[in-house]
Every structure is written in C-alpha cells, then in structure tokens.
Design brief:
This protein is mainly alpha-helical. Helix content is 68%, strand content 5%. A four-stranded mixed beta sheet has the order 2-1-3-4.
C-alpha cells in the first residue's frame, strides 16, 4: 500500500505540473453548465416574448379586420427586404365573399425550403387558422346555431406530472453532461500517464524500480479516477448555482440540483469514473504514440456517449437500464423527477460497471508485463 500511495503521489505531481493539460480536461466540467444555462436563457426569452413578425400584405385594405387581428398577434404589415420574404396576398373579392358568408381566399407566398423562414411561416399559418375558426363561430352564431355543435367531444386533460418531472428532456441533457464529465476530465491524464510516459522513455525506467505491474496499474487508475471525480465535483457545484438562475417556471417546470442529489451523483458516478479510467488507460497503452492514443480515445468515447444519450431519450429503455452508464443515468433521472430510486437496476448496472473496470485492470497488468507494450515495439 505504501508503494501504491507513493506512485499515486508521483502521478498526481506529474499531472499538476502540466497545468494546461489539467485545465483542458476540466474546461468541459466548468464551461458546459454555464454554456447550457446561457443558451436556455436565450431560448426561454424568445419563447416567452416572441419578436414581431414583419409581413408584406398585398391588398391590406380589403381585409382591415384580419390585418388588425394579425397585428394583435405581433404580425405586422411592413415593407422592406425582410418583409418581402413572407407575403400575404388577400384576394380582390375578399370583402364580397366575407359579406356573403363564403370562403375568402388568402395566399401565403414564401420559400418553405428556407429553414430560417419555417418558424415564421408556421406562425402566420397558425394565426390565420385561429382567425378562420373565430370567424366560423361568429357565422354560426349569426345563423342561430350554437358553435359547440361542431365539437361533439370536449377532451379535458388532467396532468399529474410534477414541476420537476415535466422537464424530462432538459433533465436528461443535464444528467448526460454530468455523467459524461468523468470521461472527459481524466482523459488527458490517462493519455499522458500511458502513451506519454512511454514516449518520454520514463515507463521502462519506472518499471525498473522494485514495484509490481499491479501496483503501477492501481496507482494510475486511482490518479485518473481522481481527476475524473474532480471534474464531476466541479460540474455539480457549478450546476448547483447556475441552473436555478434560469427562469424554468416560464416553461412550466423546475430544475433543482440539491445537495442530496449531488451526494447521490458522486456515489453513483464513482464506479463510472473507475470504468472510464480503466478504459482510457487500456486504449492508450494499446496505442504506440501520444497522437495515436488521442485518435483511438476519440472514437472509443462514442460508446459511453451513445449509451448516455440513448438513456436520455428513452431508446430501448428495457435493455439500457441494466447496462453500465445508461443504467446509472436512468436511475438518476428517476430520482431527479421525484420518483423512488430503482435499487435493483442501479445495483446491477453499477456491478457490471465495476466488473468491467476490474477486467480492464487485469488486462492492463498483463499488458505491462510485455516488452512490446512497455517500449512501444
């Protein structure tokens, strides 16, 4: 144990000397929640107070009531290059047909292939449909017919969702960034302490000392796991203060990162961090150079990325709730939605995670007994 502690101290000291590499691994944990909160603030502000929509209305004098109604919805008759992209043409016989109770024609002229215009087109169409429905009801009333006769069913929805459970997609995205931070935060150290040491010819020198390969592997795993957990602690602390600043109430739900959830996240994230450390060290030792290890890990990181994203959006949930990474994420989502913790699924997924970490550690121990791996032959 004394040798392992000494080796661990050596790994941490070496990592702390390369401050740029350390910060590069922690930038994700520091910047991701701040960036997400900023984007959500902008999105919520646009949804709560949409900008006025300029529209060029041809023959606006034929339908003053329609123009007035659109103006109340923030759709204004204007001229200019921006308004020319969305044109509403009112037919010449619009007043006569409306007076006779017939269908009056209006034409929306726009380029529907322009992605930037699609939201504006839908907004104008929705406003026109609402106006048409209102006019239809007034026509029925004028003829002594109750408009409710056209609604044989009146569907009422009693929503039992809590404010915490309504933000399912946002919650899944937030948990995804937190859990994925353990893979990003320790990755640079994992590459540097494996392929980097071999390129500097210090790995062979280290093994020439009276230490076993098992002690060396454990010290490197603990060092990478420490940095992975440091990234998780940072992203939890920043999320704890940043997420309450977003006006979630305007979307009808709330997101709170409580201290109890943070503690649970650290406990659940520890096996994932150990798996991440073992996986990254294993792949890095298989590579012969530092750059090659970076390329390999970039591809390998798609595996936990896919598992975590699949769990966030409920793709094959019956299978994923028992697997590493996705099982932990689904269990945490249940907790943050106010439901009980699924102990069985969490125990199985965490057990599989630890088993994979142990298997990778054994494989690393055997790899380091080979001169081809140590010297990159």
């Amino acid at each position: 144990m004394a040798k392992i502690i000494t080796l661990l101290r050596k790994e941490l000291v070496d990592a702390s000397r390369d401050k740029r590499s350390v910060l590069a691994g922690l930038y994700y944990a520091i910047g991701t929640p701040l960036l997400m909160c900023g984007l959500f603030m902008v999105l919520i502000n646009q949804l709560s107070s949409p900008e006025d929509l300029p529209v060029k209305i041809i023959h606006a004098d034929k339908a003053p009531d329609l123009v007035r109604y659109l103006g109340q919805q923030g759709i204004n008759d204007e001229t200019g290059p921006k308004a020319d992209k969305l044109v509403l043409q009112i037919s010449q016989d619009y007043p006569a047909k409306m007076a006779r109770g017939e269908s009056a024609e209006v034409i929306v002229i726009a380029d529907n292939s322009d992605e930037k215009m699609q939201d504006s087109i839908r907004r104008l169409q929705k406003a026109l449909q609402a106006y048409a429905s209102e006019m239809g009801s007034l026509r029925l009333i004028a003829r002594g017919i109750d408009p409710r006769i056209l609604k044989p069913l009146e569907v009422q929805m009693h929503d039992q969702a809590t404010p915490d459970s309504k933000g399912g997609m946002i919650l899944g995205l937030a948990l995804f960034t937190m859990l994925y931070s353990v893979f990003i935060s320790g990755m640079n150290l994992a590459i540097d302490t494996s392929a980097g040491e071999r390129e500097r010819n210090s790995l062979g020198l280290l093994l020439s000392h009276p230490v076993t390969t098992w002690q060396l592997v454990i010290s490197k795993l603990l060092a990478v796991t420490t940095f992975a957990m440091l990234g998780l602690v940072l992203i939890l602390l920043i999320s704890h203060f940043a997420y309450p600043m977003v006006p979630w109430a305007e979307l009808g739900f709330s997101i709170t990162i409580s201290p109890q959830f943070m503690l649970l996240m650290l406990i659940v994230g520890l096996p994932v961090a150990m798996l991440a450390a073992g996986l990254q060290l294993f792949v890095s030792f298989m590579a012969k150079t530092f750059k090659e290890a970076q390329s390999y890990l970039t591809m390998v990181m798609f595996i936990p990325l896919a598992l975590s994203m699949s769990a966030s959006y409920n793709i094959a949930p019956e299978v994923l709730k028992w697997l590493p990474v996705s099982g932990q994420q689904q269990a945490l989502m249940e907790v943050i939605k106010g439901k009980s913790l699924p102990w069985l699924e969490l125990a199985v997924s965490s057990g599989l995670t630890l088993l994979l970490a142990v298997m990778l550690s054994v494989a690393l121990t055997r790899m380091l007994r080979s001169e081809k791996v140590v010297f990159g032959l």
